[in-house]
TrEMBL record:
The organism of origin for this protein: Drosophila kikkawai
Keywords: Iron, Metal-binding, Oxidoreductase
SUPFAM superfamilies: Clavaminate synthase-like
Pfam families xrefs: 2OG-FeII_Oxy (PF03171), DIOX_N (PF14226)
UniProt protein name: Fe2OG dioxygenase domain-containing protein
Classification via InterPro entries: DIOX_N (IPR026992), IPNS-like_FE2OG_OXY (IPR044861), IPNS-like_sf (IPR027443), Iron_ascorbate_oxido_reductase (IPR050231), Oxoglu/Fe-dep_dioxygenase_dom (IPR005123)
Limits of the Fe2OG dioxygenase domain: 176-288
Homology family: Belongs to the iron/ascorbate-dependent oxidoreductase family.
Amino acid sequence: MINTKIRDDKLQTLVSRSAVPIIDLAHCGKSLVNRVGQQLHKAFTEKGIAFLVNHGISEEKIKNVWDQFDNFLDLPAEVQDRYRRKDGGNSGYVSPRVERFDKKTTELRHAFNICQLDDRNIPKEPLPDFADDITTLANDLKAMSTYILKAMEAALEIPAAYFVDKHSQMLTGDDVNMSTLRMLYYPAIVDDEPGQSEGAIRCGAHVDYGTFTLLAQDSEGGLEVQLPGSEKWERVGHLPGAILINGGELLSIWTRKRYHALPHRVVIPEQDHVRTRGRHSIAFFCHPNNSTMIAPNDLSEDAEQTDDKVYSAYELIQQKFNDTYGGRSK
Ligand SMILES: O=C(O)CCC(=O)C(=O)O
Ligand SMILES: [Fe+2]
Protein backbone atom coordinates (compact mmCIF):
# COMPACT_ATOMS: atom_id res chain seq x y z
CA MET A 1 0.00 0.00 0.00
CA ILE A 2 0.98 3.59 -0.35
CA ASN A 3 3.03 4.98 2.52
CA THR A 4 1.00 7.65 4.28
CA LYS A 5 3.45 8.42 7.05
CA ILE A 6 5.96 10.51 5.17
CA ARG A 7 6.52 13.99 6.52
CA ASP A 8 6.88 16.88 4.09
CA ASP A 9 10.16 18.03 5.56
CA LYS A 10 11.67 14.62 4.82
CA LEU A 11 10.86 14.99 1.13
CA GLN A 12 13.73 16.26 -0.93
CA THR A 13 12.89 17.63 -4.33
CA LEU A 14 15.00 18.97 -7.15
CA VAL A 15 13.57 22.40 -6.31
CA SER A 16 14.54 22.12 -2.64
CA ARG A 17 18.07 21.11 -3.70
CA SER A 18 18.27 23.91 -6.30
CA ALA A 19 19.00 21.23 -8.87
CA VAL A 20 16.86 22.63 -11.69
CA PRO A 21 18.26 25.56 -13.69
CA ILE A 22 16.11 28.69 -13.46
CA ILE A 23 15.97 30.89 -16.54
CA ASP A 24 14.74 34.44 -16.06
CA LEU A 25 12.80 35.75 -19.03
CA ALA A 26 12.22 39.23 -17.57
CA HIS A 27 12.53 41.94 -20.21
CA CYS A 28 13.41 39.27 -22.72
CA GLY A 29 13.67 40.69 -26.15
CA LYS A 30 16.06 40.64 -29.06
CA SER A 31 19.10 41.58 -27.03
CA LEU A 32 18.59 38.82 -24.49
CA VAL A 33 17.93 36.03 -26.93
CA ASN A 34 21.60 34.99 -26.88
CA ARG A 35 21.74 34.86 -23.09
CA VAL A 36 18.53 32.83 -22.88
CA GLY A 37 19.84 30.57 -25.64
CA GLN A 38 23.07 29.86 -23.73
CA GLN A 39 21.12 29.08 -20.58
CA LEU A 40 18.72 26.80 -22.42
CA HIS A 41 21.65 25.09 -24.13
CA LYS A 42 23.28 24.36 -20.79
CA ALA A 43 19.97 23.18 -19.30
CA PHE A 44 19.10 20.90 -22.24
CA THR A 45 22.58 19.39 -22.45
CA GLU A 46 23.09 18.86 -18.72
CA LYS A 47 19.59 18.26 -17.33
CA GLY A 48 16.88 18.24 -19.99
CA ILE A 49 14.78 20.49 -17.77
CA ALA A 50 14.61 24.11 -16.56
CA PHE A 51 12.16 26.47 -14.92
CA LEU A 52 11.22 29.66 -16.77
CA VAL A 53 10.37 32.57 -14.46
CA ASN A 54 9.17 36.11 -15.13
CA HIS A 55 7.75 34.77 -18.38
CA GLY A 56 4.93 37.31 -18.52
CA ILE A 57 2.01 34.85 -18.68
CA SER A 58 -0.32 35.89 -15.89
CA GLU A 59 -1.49 33.44 -13.27
CA GLU A 60 -5.01 34.54 -14.04
CA LYS A 61 -4.84 33.30 -17.64
CA ILE A 62 -3.58 29.93 -16.48
CA LYS A 63 -6.13 29.66 -13.70
CA ASN A 64 -8.96 30.53 -16.06
CA VAL A 65 -8.06 27.51 -18.14
CA TRP A 66 -7.95 25.21 -15.11
CA ASP A 67 -11.38 26.55 -14.09
CA GLN A 68 -12.72 25.94 -17.57
CA PHE A 69 -11.48 22.36 -17.53
CA ASP A 70 -13.13 21.84 -14.11
CA ASN A 71 -16.36 23.17 -15.65
CA PHE A 72 -15.99 20.71 -18.51
CA LEU A 73 -15.46 17.81 -16.09
CA ASP A 74 -18.67 18.80 -14.27
CA LEU A 75 -20.72 18.40 -17.46
CA PRO A 76 -22.93 15.32 -17.89
CA ALA A 77 -21.12 12.38 -19.44
CA GLU A 78 -23.22 12.55 -22.60
CA VAL A 79 -22.06 16.14 -23.24
CA GLN A 80 -18.41 15.26 -22.54
CA ASP A 81 -18.77 12.34 -24.95
CA ARG A 82 -19.32 14.76 -27.85
CA TYR A 83 -15.77 16.03 -27.40
CA ARG A 84 -13.95 12.75 -26.94
CA ARG A 85 -10.66 12.21 -28.75
CA LYS A 86 -11.37 10.01 -31.74
CA ASP A 87 -9.02 7.87 -33.76
CA GLY A 88 -7.85 9.89 -36.70
CA GLY A 89 -6.75 12.95 -34.72
CA ASN A 90 -5.35 13.95 -31.36
CA SER A 91 -7.88 16.66 -30.41
CA GLY A 92 -10.42 16.09 -27.69
CA TYR A 93 -11.13 14.69 -24.28
CA VAL A 94 -9.38 11.58 -22.95
CA SER A 95 -10.87 10.13 -19.77
CA PRO A 96 -8.93 8.26 -17.08
CA ARG A 97 -7.66 4.76 -17.97
CA VAL A 98 -7.58 5.32 -21.78
CA GLU A 99 -3.94 6.36 -22.39
CA ARG A 100 -1.25 4.02 -21.13
CA PHE A 101 2.26 5.22 -21.74
CA ASP A 102 3.74 1.84 -20.80
CA LYS A 103 0.81 -0.11 -22.37
CA LYS A 104 -0.23 -1.67 -19.04
CA THR A 105 -0.41 0.63 -16.01
CA THR A 106 -3.77 2.27 -15.25
CA GLU A 107 -3.49 6.06 -15.53
CA LEU A 108 -5.76 8.21 -13.40
CA ARG A 109 -6.09 11.49 -15.25
CA HIS A 110 -8.41 13.55 -17.38
CA ALA A 111 -6.85 15.21 -20.42
CA PHE A 112 -8.17 17.54 -23.09
CA ASN A 113 -6.06 18.09 -26.20
CA ILE A 114 -6.37 21.18 -28.37
CA CYS A 115 -4.51 20.96 -31.69
CA GLN A 116 -6.34 23.66 -33.61
CA LEU A 117 -7.63 26.91 -32.19
CA ASP A 118 -10.73 27.14 -34.36
CA ASP A 119 -11.47 23.47 -33.92
CA ARG A 120 -15.02 22.18 -33.66
CA ASN A 121 -13.68 20.06 -30.84
CA ILE A 122 -13.43 23.08 -28.51
CA PRO A 123 -16.66 23.14 -26.51
CA LYS A 124 -18.81 26.23 -27.05
CA GLU A 125 -22.09 25.11 -25.60
CA PRO A 126 -22.65 24.99 -22.68
CA LEU A 127 -19.28 26.61 -21.83
CA PRO A 128 -19.30 29.93 -23.71
CA ASP A 129 -15.91 31.20 -22.39
CA PHE A 130 -14.03 27.93 -22.74
CA ALA A 131 -12.73 28.64 -26.26
CA ASP A 132 -11.72 32.25 -25.50
CA ASP A 133 -9.82 31.44 -22.31
CA ILE A 134 -7.98 28.60 -23.97
CA THR A 135 -7.17 30.56 -27.10
CA THR A 136 -5.74 33.43 -25.03
CA LEU A 137 -3.40 31.15 -23.12
CA ALA A 138 -2.52 29.05 -26.17
CA ASN A 139 -1.45 32.15 -28.10
CA ASP A 140 0.82 33.21 -25.22
CA LEU A 141 2.40 29.76 -25.04
CA LYS A 142 2.87 29.77 -28.80
CA ALA A 143 4.61 33.16 -28.64
CA MET A 144 6.80 31.92 -25.80
CA SER A 145 7.70 28.82 -27.82
CA THR A 146 8.68 30.96 -30.79
CA TYR A 147 10.97 33.02 -28.55
CA ILE A 148 12.56 29.83 -27.22
CA LEU A 149 13.07 28.52 -30.76
CA LYS A 150 14.89 31.76 -31.62
CA ALA A 151 17.05 31.41 -28.52
CA MET A 152 17.90 27.84 -29.55
CA GLU A 153 18.87 28.99 -33.06
CA ALA A 154 21.31 31.45 -31.48
CA ALA A 155 22.76 28.85 -29.12
CA LEU A 156 23.18 26.20 -31.82
CA GLU A 157 24.59 28.79 -34.26
CA ILE A 158 22.22 27.79 -37.02
CA PRO A 159 20.66 30.24 -39.48
CA ALA A 160 18.09 32.64 -38.05
CA ALA A 161 14.53 31.35 -38.55
CA TYR A 162 15.69 27.73 -39.12
CA PHE A 163 13.55 26.48 -36.21
CA VAL A 164 10.92 29.22 -36.33
CA ASP A 165 10.08 28.48 -39.98
CA LYS A 166 9.85 24.77 -39.26
CA HIS A 167 7.36 25.43 -36.43
CA SER A 168 5.30 27.98 -38.36
CA GLN A 169 2.02 26.05 -38.16
CA MET A 170 1.64 25.41 -34.43
CA LEU A 171 -2.05 24.95 -33.47
CA THR A 172 -3.39 25.08 -37.01
CA GLY A 173 -4.36 21.40 -36.89
CA ASP A 174 -2.58 18.12 -36.26
CA ASP A 175 -2.79 17.19 -39.93
CA VAL A 176 -0.05 19.81 -40.50
CA ASN A 177 1.60 20.25 -37.09
CA MET A 178 1.20 18.10 -33.95
CA SER A 179 1.66 20.93 -31.42
CA THR A 180 -0.95 20.53 -28.72
CA LEU A 181 -2.22 22.41 -25.72
CA ARG A 182 -3.21 19.77 -23.19
CA MET A 183 -5.26 20.47 -20.08
CA LEU A 184 -4.77 17.87 -17.38
CA TYR A 185 -6.60 17.08 -14.20
CA TYR A 186 -5.47 14.32 -11.86
CA PRO A 187 -8.36 13.45 -9.52
CA ALA A 188 -7.86 13.36 -5.78
CA ILE A 189 -7.40 9.90 -4.35
CA VAL A 190 -9.80 9.89 -1.40
CA ASP A 191 -11.38 7.12 0.60
CA ASP A 192 -9.07 4.80 -1.24
CA GLU A 193 -10.40 1.25 -1.04
CA PRO A 194 -7.53 -1.18 -0.70
CA GLY A 195 -6.36 -1.99 -4.18
CA GLN A 196 -8.27 0.81 -5.92
CA SER A 197 -5.30 2.97 -6.78
CA GLU A 198 -2.66 0.37 -6.07
CA GLY A 199 -0.45 -0.18 -9.09
CA ALA A 200 -2.01 2.87 -10.76
CA ILE A 201 -0.18 6.04 -11.69
CA ARG A 202 -1.23 9.58 -12.55
CA CYS A 203 0.86 9.61 -15.73
CA GLY A 204 3.13 6.75 -16.79
CA ALA A 205 6.84 7.13 -17.49
CA HIS A 206 7.57 8.59 -20.92
CA VAL A 207 9.53 11.18 -22.82
CA ASP A 208 7.58 13.81 -24.73
CA TYR A 209 7.71 13.33 -28.46
CA GLY A 210 8.23 16.76 -29.91
CA THR A 211 10.71 19.63 -29.74
CA PHE A 212 10.05 20.71 -26.15
CA THR A 213 7.18 20.96 -23.68
CA LEU A 214 6.11 23.91 -21.53
CA LEU A 215 4.35 22.83 -18.35
CA ALA A 216 2.38 24.88 -15.82
CA GLN A 217 1.36 23.06 -12.62
CA ASP A 218 -0.84 24.19 -9.74
CA SER A 219 0.90 22.07 -7.13
CA GLU A 220 3.56 19.45 -6.75
CA GLY A 221 1.36 16.40 -7.10
CA GLY A 222 3.84 13.70 -7.99
CA LEU A 223 5.92 14.88 -10.98
CA GLU A 224 9.19 12.95 -11.15
CA VAL A 225 12.06 12.90 -13.65
CA GLN A 226 15.14 10.84 -14.46
CA LEU A 227 18.07 13.19 -14.93
CA PRO A 228 20.67 12.36 -17.59
CA GLY A 229 22.85 9.39 -16.70
CA SER A 230 20.63 8.27 -13.83
CA GLU A 231 17.83 5.75 -13.52
CA LYS A 232 16.70 7.23 -10.23
CA TRP A 233 13.29 8.89 -10.19
CA GLU A 234 13.53 12.27 -8.49
CA ARG A 235 10.69 14.50 -7.32
CA VAL A 236 10.71 17.80 -9.16
CA GLY A 237 8.85 19.86 -6.56
CA HIS A 238 6.91 22.99 -7.26
CA LEU A 239 8.12 26.51 -7.97
CA PRO A 240 4.94 28.60 -7.90
CA GLY A 241 4.42 30.69 -11.01
CA ALA A 242 7.27 29.07 -12.94
CA ILE A 243 6.78 27.27 -16.24
CA LEU A 244 8.78 24.12 -16.59
CA ILE A 245 10.43 23.35 -19.92
CA ASN A 246 11.62 19.88 -20.85
CA GLY A 247 13.28 18.61 -24.00
CA GLY A 248 11.44 16.18 -26.30
CA GLU A 249 12.60 13.16 -28.24
CA LEU A 250 12.48 14.79 -31.62
CA LEU A 251 14.84 17.56 -30.50
CA SER A 252 17.11 14.94 -29.04
CA ILE A 253 17.24 13.11 -32.40
CA TRP A 254 17.72 16.43 -34.23
CA THR A 255 20.69 17.39 -32.02
CA ARG A 256 22.23 13.90 -32.10
CA LYS A 257 21.39 13.54 -28.41
CA ARG A 258 23.28 16.68 -27.39
CA TYR A 259 19.92 17.87 -26.05
CA HIS A 260 18.41 15.48 -23.57
CA ALA A 261 14.84 14.13 -23.84
CA LEU A 262 13.73 13.95 -20.24
CA PRO A 263 11.97 10.78 -18.97
CA HIS A 264 9.21 11.84 -16.58
CA ARG A 265 6.08 10.55 -14.90
CA VAL A 266 3.46 11.67 -12.39
CA VAL A 267 3.05 9.24 -9.50
CA ILE A 268 0.26 9.09 -6.95
CA PRO A 269 1.79 11.15 -4.14
CA GLU A 270 2.80 9.34 -0.99
CA GLN A 271 1.68 12.07 1.40
CA ASP A 272 -1.97 11.90 2.42
CA HIS A 273 -2.63 15.61 2.17
CA VAL A 274 -1.17 15.80 -1.33
CA ARG A 275 -2.79 12.65 -2.64
CA THR A 276 -6.20 13.77 -1.42
CA ARG A 277 -5.96 16.95 -3.52
CA GLY A 278 -6.58 16.95 -7.23
CA ARG A 279 -3.86 18.41 -9.41
CA HIS A 280 -4.14 20.58 -12.49
CA SER A 281 -1.48 21.07 -15.09
CA ILE A 282 -1.30 22.46 -18.61
CA ALA A 283 1.24 21.17 -21.10
CA PHE A 284 2.06 22.87 -24.37
CA PHE A 285 3.79 20.40 -26.65
CA CYS A 286 5.79 22.32 -29.24
CA HIS A 287 6.24 20.33 -32.46
CA PRO A 288 7.68 21.11 -35.89
CA ASN A 289 5.41 21.07 -38.92
CA ASN A 290 4.73 17.46 -39.90
CA SER A 291 6.59 17.76 -43.21
CA THR A 292 9.84 18.89 -41.55
CA MET A 293 12.72 16.58 -42.35
CA ILE A 294 14.59 16.02 -39.11
CA ALA A 295 18.11 16.31 -40.45
CA PRO A 296 20.72 16.20 -37.66
CA ASN A 297 23.40 17.25 -40.13
CA ASP A 298 21.87 20.73 -40.33
CA LEU A 299 22.51 21.22 -36.62
CA SER A 300 25.83 19.52 -36.30
CA GLU A 301 29.26 21.04 -36.26
CA ASP A 302 30.47 17.75 -37.70
CA ALA A 303 29.38 18.05 -41.33
CA GLU A 304 31.31 14.90 -42.25
CA GLN A 305 28.83 12.68 -40.50
CA THR A 306 26.19 12.02 -43.15
CA ASP A 307 25.01 8.52 -42.42
CA ASP A 308 21.89 9.44 -40.36
CA LYS A 309 18.64 8.26 -41.89
CA VAL A 310 16.40 11.31 -42.26
CA TYR A 311 12.71 10.95 -41.34
CA SER A 312 9.95 13.49 -41.40
CA ALA A 313 8.59 14.76 -38.09
CA TYR A 314 5.29 13.06 -39.00
CA GLU A 315 6.93 9.64 -39.40
CA LEU A 316 8.79 9.92 -36.11
CA ILE A 317 5.80 11.10 -34.08
CA GLN A 318 3.38 8.62 -35.60
CA GLN A 319 5.49 5.77 -34.38
CA LYS A 320 5.29 7.11 -30.82
CA PHE A 321 1.52 7.67 -30.97
CA ASN A 322 0.93 4.13 -32.09
CA ASP A 323 2.84 2.90 -29.05
CA THR A 324 0.84 5.04 -26.58
CA TYR A 325 -2.66 4.43 -27.89
CA GLY A 326 -2.26 0.68 -28.25
CA GLY A 327 -1.52 0.46 -31.95
CA ARG A 328 -4.51 2.50 -33.14
CA SER A 329 -3.03 4.82 -35.68
CA LYS A 330 -4.07 8.24 -36.80
O1 LIG B 1 1.01 16.81 -15.61
C1 LIG B 1 2.23 16.78 -15.65
O2 LIG B 1 2.92 17.30 -14.78
C2 LIG B 1 2.95 16.08 -16.77
C3 LIG B 1 2.07 15.64 -17.91
C4 LIG B 1 2.86 15.01 -19.00
O3 LIG B 1 3.99 14.70 -18.84
C5 LIG B 1 2.26 14.78 -20.32
O4 LIG B 1 1.03 14.88 -20.48
O5 LIG B 1 3.02 14.47 -21.27
FE1 LIG C 1 5.02 14.45 -20.70
